[in-house]
Amino acid sequence: MTTKELILFSDKYIMKTYNRFPIVLVKGSGVKVWDSDGKEYLDFVAGIAVCSLGHSHPKVVKAIKKQVEALTHVSNLYYIEPQIHLAKLLVENSFADKAFFCNSGAEANEAAIKLARKYAYEHMNGNKYEIITMENSFHGRTLATVTATGQKKFHTGFDPLPEGFRYVPFDDIPAVKNAITEKTCAVMVEPIQGEGGVQIPVHDYLQRLRKLCDDKGILLILDEIQVGMGRTGNLFAYEESGIRPDMMTLAKALGNGFPVGALLTTDKIASSFVPGSHASTFGGNPLGMAAGVAVMDSLLQDGILENCRETGFYFLEKLKEFKKKHPVINEVRGRGLILGVELSIPGDDIVKKAMGKGVLINCTNGNILRFVPPLIINKKDVDHVIDILNEVIVP
After folding, report:
1. Is residue 348 flagged as an active site residue?
2. What are the angstrom distances between the C-alpha of 4 and each of 15, 16, 35?
3. What does pTM read for this prediction?
């Protein structure tokens, strides 16, 4: 079937919930992907921060192949061996004592919202249920998580939205303090806003937020779905701040392309979830867990984090030099290998031109070029992307 035919059938049979680019990607290896016409692309999107180890990573492929031949699915009515291994790896390398597994970031955040309310019901006199989230945030597409998302454009058409969420500006501690009421049970925040345009708070933001939550006796939930699993150069983004959250949600890169989500928390908070409180039919399935174990092993043992820090710093410096040449660039920002270039012009046309030259990049919020490549990229890859950007950013 030709590319044109595939696109026609897609438009005919699949709901139009995405504005898709007119290519059909059929193969990937490392930092490159190929379309149905055989054209090669350098991928600096990585499934939107998902394929952090690159496409078809040998460890992940081997783990999934081995697992699919042994056991695909049985249900959480029984113990699942790779689930136990992944939980152990996550807990022993984080603040947490317990893990809950699901299939996506939205599900992980949904679980966090439910657990926060359940814990508050049991430990906060039963009358606290509101969660404060940040303007410009993104927490998912379920009805609760889209309501938690502090962007009105995602709310349109879905009224009445569930009650229990209040929004304040990101990186504004006084605004959080003023929003806390007798009904507040938690604050939910991304350490770096990814979908919101790679917005990075001041260095002590999480520390001050942690202290405020402690002073007010409320929970701090970190959404690390996009910035966790090595993206910032640490295994988890919160590590740089030195704080310990009460809950943390993960997904995206946890399975390197296989759908996996997780909620991590402490023993005390986890005890509010008992049999019947929450569940997921496919959450923690053997295939996803095998992929997650392989991802964790690689992140911890293969120098991925070191490469992310080194190459990310190099990329950021190159983008700063790039900015000096192009007046349409307002700001360059980033940490590790999540970087953003804020433009004074729309960015969609730049993305299309770069794609035409064999480089996949992303634009969010209309004018912010977002770079979330595999964490295995090298300086040569960065140089190539900068060269292409120099060609395509000229009006």
Report:
1. no
2. 18, 17, 12
3. 0.97
